[in-house]
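Q: Sequence in, structure out?
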Amino acid sequence: MIPRNLYEAASVDGGTKWEMFWKITFPMITPILIVNLIYTITDSFTSYSNKIMQLIMTTVQENMKFEYGATLAWIYFAAIVVVMGLVYLLFNKHIVYID
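A: Exactly. Output:
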């Protein structure tokens, strides 16, 4: 919850509703937006409608090529780690933490 006194101080200083949103509300809700983004990206990578996941599952379950399936899974995992690392690096400086 965003402290009410921040909005009161901005109002006293002559801030508009638009400025209050962009300078108070948005920075304060950024951490939850980042968490939501991370969960959404992770979910899109692990969805069964994902073609790469279908290839890995088909390789292991139907073709019985466990080594090849495991190799594909590790490569896919490494790609996901790289993407999530980039998301972290890009958005880490935009997160505002309050006490």
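The two ends are 11 Å apart (CA to CA).
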